[in-house]
Amino acid sequence: MSTRRRPALAVLAIGTLALTAACAKGNAGGSADAGSSSAPRPSETNLTELFAPPKIEVGTADDSKGPAIEPEGVVKGSTVNMIDRDDYPHLDPGRVYDNVTANFHLLITRGLTGYKKVGDNHYKVVGDLATDAGQVSDGGKTWTFTLKDGVKWQDGSPITSADVKWSMERLFAPFITEGPPYIQQWLTEEDYKKSYKGPYDGKELGNIETPDDKTVVFKFNEPHADANYALAMTGYGIVPKAKDTKEKYDKTPVSSGPYIIAAHSLDKSMDLERNPNWDPATDPIRGAYPDKWHLEFGYQALAVTDRFVADTGDDQKTFSFYTHVAAERTQQVLQDKSLQDRIMRRPSPYGDYYYFNLDRVKDVKIRQAIAYAWPTKQIQTITGGPDTSVINTTILNPSVSGWEDYDVFGFKQHPEGDLDKAKELLAQSGDPTPTIVYGYNNTPTEQRVTVAIKNQMAKIGIKIVAKPMDTKTWYDATGKVENGLDMYWGGWGADWPTAATVFPVIFGPVRDGGYNQSHLKDPEVTAEIKRIEGLADVDEANKAWAALDKKIMETITPLVPGLNNVGLQLRGSKVGGAEIDPISWVVSPNTIFVKP
Amino acid sequence: MTFPSPAPSPAGTDATADTAGSAEPAQPASAFVGRSPGQLMWRRFRRDRTGVASAVIVLFFILVAVAAPLISLLYGKDPYTTYGLDDPGLLNEYGYPLLPNGGISSEFWFGIEPSLGRDVFTQLVYGIRTSLLIALAATLTTTILGVVVGIVAGYTGGRTDNLIGRVIDIMLSFPSTLFIIAFMPVVWNLLVSPGEEMSALMSATTLIIMLTVFGWASLARLLRGYVLSLREREFVEAARVTGASPTRIIFKELLPNLWTPILVQATLALPLYVTSEAALSFLGVGMMEPTPDWGRMFLRGTEVYQDDITYLMFPGVALLIFVIAFNLLGDSVRDAFDPKIKH
Asked: Which UniProt key words apply to this protein (chain A) (predicted)?
């Protein structure tokens, strides 16, 4: 869901996989067929279903009415506990651009729109504070939202259109640097902080209009068919105009959501109590079933897993937003039958790529030869096997709406790599024995992956020069235009499940610290991206994105798609309604309840 | 007339007492006269069964390390090919060997490595080679540096001694492991040009340099102490009075008396460097994939031991045997040189 948390998540995911490998089904001293691939395993039956992308559509005004759809067997009341590793870096919604913090903000912050769960793996973008998911006019340039009756701040004062306008304008202020850029750019220009400095000096932004207390009108410079998706991001959550304390708001936020922060001990714990002025009848998204929340921080994966496995006392009413099962325990968790009903699994919505540096690897035949020979299956084995990852063949993650499956390079047909085809292409290329400088995260797992890649490429005559790199500064180093590398891993997660938050970014402007890591500067692709961004019809745009995905891979091949990871978490036995959200890849608080 | 013996070490005189009570009783004085301290030491060492057994084991390891390519050739496998990934019948989909006991078979004597499926036997043989070479080189360089600095400090005394003493203090109090972990990536960046891979030789060299930089100080301090007491002894005084040059005094008078501590320290240092090298590889700043390495094998073993204990056993037990054998050897050498402190 974000760029900023991405490096950490990537490392986390890799770490998880590395450790998963350590604990997957072993055969030491066992019989020969105990772990053979032909033996039935509980996970295998479900894979297709598990990896089905969530269905996400835009809801109607009826869908936008509260209360939220209740999960089966819901019980209200009691206190739920949540344990995790880290406290939240920002309580000011405008400064949130990572999935974990955004997930927490569902408890205290509302926005114009949001994601409503309507069924299993089925979501609708509905009006949260607004009566519907927005009315489009002027060919997609004008978006009109009407606020619901009875929506209030925690002090009981009504939420007005002026508050919404203020919340958008303050994102231009110099102290807000962390949030998403989309709405600001659409209202002004790409470098949006140049044209407007925020509302604190009394200046207003002309193209957000508030004709009355209940109506907000956004007037964008160009058509944007998915403004309702963009506004569902926590970064566009609302802040009260009357109580905005600028930088200090990050410590003392005012709640518009179902809970109020009653106590907060930094990096240690947080207690939430009900917000008496939140009316479930106005909220289609948040269930808010427990009376109180007790959040604790500072727990590592192993401790969290052990507590859930033991499942005693108060831990039965405990779950975790994002702590995955510790590697050392994965096998135990997957094989223990008594834990099966407390396991949560979900494929990652993030895209993993092995980028080519197009400035250096200029011959498309070489790039395609590498793609054909790519040791997908070997990498999967090294990183923990098919229980924690699946083979991916596209640029878009399958969870992104509009994703269409294709397999240009036969990653699924030849998971071990199609060496003949690769050799054939290399023979036609300008240099049949190229040298590729490959940068990798210097972790034990990545070292092993690199060995596999190196051996595989040696078979077709490509020499891999492997450069170990520091994990902490990974994106700083590979994000430089002159990075001195030919190939490197990179990840990107869609900010909302449309390709409009993928292609314009990863094939966008080439600059230091930018996200166009393949340095693709094809005028045709850029023109096509601009054209699709201008399409008002979402379905048409989605189709065009999918076609562009395939076309880029077929004609340019700027990257080799990596594996899609699968998350694995546990929860306490008395926590109901918990599942890993397919959009944000963390456990959503909206459906959580405590069983008696 | 007194005769300034080149080596009137306590070991020499005490040797009589030692040999007197042993298997060769009542050695006449003529036998004592005819033997150098080295010969005496050798005789004493040969009678130490533990010492001889340790020496055989250590020699075996060294032989294995030296003959690694030959062993690999005869055995028909190499430590770099990922047999398990290339041949689908060896590893399951989680990357663990299908056969019991870590995939031990007539083809893979010590089993196959989890995940990458390389041959454990050749990995271990080559890993021992890597580790021993680095440890041996580091021992050699630290000993030479330690001896030079220690003698210079002890013999010259005064300001030089003071300065060197402070440098040694700093080196000894330095958190060396932390420093190496932090500094190693910087060194690599400096030495390796972009677009090139770091060669195994280069990382071995940096490791040896790092181990030397932090290893010489303790030996230097020890030798400085010895030299300080030796230089006031009569035979040194006498040499000085007769007009011997400092070079002659150092090499002919002092050094022969220092061989005991030097040899003992060196034999104890080598296993220490083997474990240090393993530890650094364990911590990620040692030898890189795909160079086979004892320490990295051990690290991987601790990650997968729940499912493949065999992979931990082979490098673990080999390391254990080697370090114990070498430490016992060091003890025996010291005892042979200096029977006064025999237990």
From this structure: Signal
**Nearest chain A residue (CA) to B307:** A26
A484 contact residues in B (CB cutoff 8 A)? 194-195
Looking at the complex, report in whole angstroms how far the Cα of residue B104 sits from the nearest Cα belonging to chain A.
10
Identity of the residue in B101, B289, B310 whose CB atom sits nearest the CB atom of A450: B289
Closest by Cβ to A21, choosing from B102, B115, B299:
B115
What does the alpha-carbon distance between residue B179 and residue A579 come to, in Å, rounded to a whole number? 44
Geometric angle at alpha carbon A2, from A254 and A375, rounded to 5°: 155
pLDDT tens-digit series, residues A532-573:
888 878 788 889 999 999 999 999 999 999 888 888 899 999
Q: What is the spatial distance between Cα A293 and Cα A275, in angstroms, rounded to a whole number?
A: 12
- The domains found in chain A, sorted by start residue, are 350-565 (3.10.105.10)
| Residue ranges for chain B with pLDDT beneath 50 | 1-31, 342-343
Peptide bond connecting A67 to the previous residue in cis, omega within 30 degrees of 0:
yes
- What are the pLDDT digits (tens) for A125-180? 999 999 999 999 988 899 999 999 999 999 999 999 999 999 999 999 988 877 88
Residues of B with CB under 8 A from a CB of A: 80-82, 85, 88, 91-102, 114-116, 185, 188, 194-197, 284, 288-290, 299-300, 303-304, 306-311
Nearest to A366 by CA among A295, A296, A436: A436
Q: Which 3 state secondary structure label does DSSP give B154? A: helix
pTM of structure: 0.71
Q: What type of residue sits at position A397?
A: N
